[in-house]
Amino acid sequence: MISKSLLPWVKRCLFLLALLPLSRLFWLGFTDQLGANPVEFVEHSTGTWALVILLLTLTVTPLHRVPGWGWLVTLRRMLGLFMCFYASLHVLAYIWLDHWFEWSAIIQDIAKHPYVLVGFLAFICTIPLAVTSTDGMMRRLGKRWKTLHSLVYLIAILAVLHYLWLVKQDISQPLGYTLILAGLLFFRLHRKLKNKI
Amino acid sequence: MLIGRPPDIVSSDITPEHVFRQRRELIKAAGLGGILALGGWRHLGFAAGTGHQPALQHIQKTTYGREEKLTSYRDITSYNNFYEFGTSKEQPAENAGRFKTAPWTIAVEGEVLKPRQLGMEELMKLAPLEERIYRMRCVEGWSMVIPWVGIPLASLIKLVQPTANAKFIEFISAADDATMPGVRAPILDWPYREALRLDEARHPLTILALGLYGEMLPGQNGAPVRLVVPWKYGFKGGKSIVRIRFVEKMPQTTWMRAASTEYGFYANVNPTVDHPRWSQASERRIGTGLFTKRIATQMFNGYAEQVGQLYTGMDLRKHF
Predict the structure, then answer these.
(1) DSSP 3-state of B283
(2) Domain contains B139
(3) Helices marked H in B30-173 — which ranges?
(4) Is A165 within the bounds of a domain?
(5) Do residue B90 and residue A28 have CB atoms under 8 angstroms apart?
(6) Per-residue pLDDT tens over the stretch A26-58
(7) Which residues of chain A lie closer than 8 angstroms to B294, CB-CB?
(8) Which candidate in B2, B263, B272, B283 is best for mutational testing of the A interface (most A CBs within 10 A)?
(9) How many independent structural domains does chain A possess?
(10) Which terminus of chain B faces fewer neighbouring Cβ atoms within 10 Å, N or C?
(11) B156 phi and psi, to 5 degrees?
């Protein structure tokens, strides 16, 4: 357990840490190190970090319950918002850098290709969660807040599917994320069932 | 995991495109064309260096793709799909260093009157080396412009004299698990196999490439010899070829075996037939930077005039 006076500092550090992937992209961009296909690099990088932060967000509960790190819960909102931030950058890179706001091509791409569709749905689902992340909204929504925010599980499943379906042949990387997500979901399911009995 | 950054290439090791162009112009102007050894460039006062591979000698210039802006040597040799060396774009350049390309022989066999084991020396003597600047369109939606050096595949076909039964040619790539780390993983059914119809293989645009930018091929680009069929998606160009087999029945290629609904035998570049998972209507030209739009993909990758007649009467939606 960490002391209450330390917590604001932990939050500040986490904030700066979560900005590192974005800073890195700017650094690589300005020093011409984004590689032969910079658009793909930016898309993959922002997408990967959105997924990583999403899985970190889902790791908070198990760490809170098992080792009893209750203080972690106070970091969860920031992690969730950063997930939404990187997902937005990912979508922005797709709409702007990849497709230059050619809406007809984008709509066709979403409608025709399942991996784009599930990714898009995952992003749409993050919006209400970000909007209702404030204390005021939590109070106003009361019990419904928790129900609404269980959307995060759907987002995680869609995000992992998005990655799995996008890969051409070697699925080892998305499979890794799938296994981690499966573990995190299993933990919750297991607890729920145990509590019922 | 994030995508790693491409390996460092000392910038002085790269022949800048304008220098490359300059040299081409100079050589042309001097009327030395195919006579002057490219290795001799080094002594012409352009001290920029000629890259990391030995230069190829006696290359005849051609008019193919002269209007195109070349993709840089660095991009061509650091962004590769060559799963035998790993499935990321950077791994082939990182891992191809240990792959031995000399000595090298290609077994040419099957429905031919004169089956042969061809060494690289013999192969290079089949026809004058030609520079062919071709667009290369990857099935993943990106493209490059590459100054290949090679010989027409037709010259090899002529040498071995196919029998009347020969209808297709199969190209089998190296699969050495000691030096190709990707082969140790069951990602594809190794060795990599590609194939062409005999008339496609005989087409003057089809070449066996031995080099690029005037130099021998680096490992990651398919050294020492690979197939280049510019009107088809890049995966049709089998790399590091060890066996060429003339057969009667249409062979099953590696990608057809892996996903027959996604990759067909013909794999002609066709903006109107989408891959099930992505559109083929447009492509991203490599090397044009972060803020450049995609360009429209052309039918047969812009070679429709030359190759369209090979497919008259065929339903290209069905034979994708």
Answers:
(1) strand
(2) yes
(3) 73-78, 91-95, 120-125, 153-160
(4) yes
(5) no
(6) 999 999 999 999 999 999 999 999 999 999 999
(7) 98-100
(8) B2
(9) 1
(10) N
(11) -75, -40
Q: How many domains, in total, are found in chain B? A: 1
Long-range contacts of the stretch B119-126 (C-beta < 8 A, 24+): B120/B210, B120/B224, B120/B225, B123/B151, B123/B156, B123/B208, B123/B210, B123/B225, B124/B151, B124/B210, B126/B151, B126/B155, B126/B156, B126/B159
* Chain mean position to CA A33: 25
The per-residue pLDDT for range B75-123, each reduced to its tens digit, is 999 999 999 999 999 999 999 999 999 999 999 999 999 999 999 999 9
CB-closest option in B79, B185, B282 to A36: B79
Q: Binding site annotation covers B83?
A: yes
Instruction: Write out the residue range of the structural domain in which residue A119 sits.
Output: 7-196
Residue B6 lies in a domain: no
What is the distance between the alpha carbons of residues B206 and B160, in angstroms, rounded to a whole number?
A: 17
CB atoms inside a 10 Å sphere around CB B314 = 11
- Dump pLDDT digits (tens) for A77-90: 999 999 999 999 99
**What is the Cα–Cα distance from B114 to A125, expressed in whole angstroms?**
65
Q: What is the ipTM of this complex?
A: 0.88
pLDDT at B276: 87
Tell me the pLDDT band of B246, cut-offs 50, 70 and 90.
very high
Per CB-CB distance under 8 Å, the chain B contacts of A118 are none
Q: Is B35 domain-assigned?
A: no
A179 is a domain residue: yes
Is the pLDDT at A155 greater than 90? The verdict is yes
CATH of the domain at B167: 3.90.420.10
Residue B276 structural domain: 55-311
**Cα atoms in the Cβ-side hemisphere of radius 13 Å centred on B62:** 19
Burial environment of residue B269 by CB neighbours within 10 A (0 to 12, 13 to 18, 19 or more): buried
In a domain, A1, yes or no: no
The answer to whether position B261 is within a domain reads yes
Question: What would the mean pLDDT of B156-176 be, rounded to a whole number?
Answer: 98
Q: What is the pLDDT of residues A100-142, one digit of tens each?
A: 999 999 999 999 999 999 999 999 999 999 999 999 999 999 9
Q: Does any domain span residue A68?
A: yes
At B21 the pLDDT is 56
Q: How far apart are CA B173 and CA B243, in angstroms?
A: 7
- pLDDT at residue B10 greater than cutoff 70: no
